[in-house]
Amino acid sequence: MGLILGLIIGGLAGWIAGNLTRGGGFGLLGNIVIGLVGGFLGGVVFGLIGLKSTGIIGSLVTSVAGAVLLIFIVGKIKKR
């Protein structure tokens, strides 16, 4: 059940981040990948600044924040 919930949260986080940053999603698989990597990145960044998230909503917020950061970093790298 944890894997399925993680994929759902990852997909939702990727979709939200895609809509916040460039106005559209990245497709189902792209949203899931961006959300999962963003969740990891968000967890690392939140841990470094001393924040913790709990529950489904906390995981979603962390994943969205990390996914937005990931999209920002990739956008800056691609412009070079």
Report on the structure:
The chain has helices at residues 2-21, 28-48, 55-79. It is mainly alpha-helical and 80 residues long. It has a domain at 7-21 and 33-49 and 58-74. The longest helix has 25 residues, at 55-79. The mean pLDDT is 87.
SSE order and pairing:
Blueprint: H1 2-21, H2 28-48, H3 55-79
Helix pairs in contact: 1-2, 1-3, 2-3
Keywords: Cell membrane, Membrane, Transmembrane, Transmembrane helix
InterPro entries: Transgly_assoc
Transmembrane segments: 28-49, 56-75
How would you describe this structure in keywords?
single chain, 80 residues, mainly alpha, 3 helices, 82% helix
Could you describe the largest sheet, including whether it forms a barrel? none
Rg result? 12 Å
What is the number of helical segments per DSSP (H or I, 4+ residues)? 3
Mean pLDDT, to the nearest integer, reads 87
Proportion of residues in helical segments: over 70%
Task: Indicate the structural class.
Answer: mainly alpha
Bin the strand percentage.
under 5%
How does the overall form come out from the CA principal axes?
Answer: globular
Per DSSP E runs of 2 or more residues, the count of β-strands stands at 0
> What ranges have pLDDT less than 50 throughout 5 or more consecutive residues?
none
State the order of secondary-structure elements, H for helix, E for strand: HHH
What distance separates the N and C termini? 41 Å
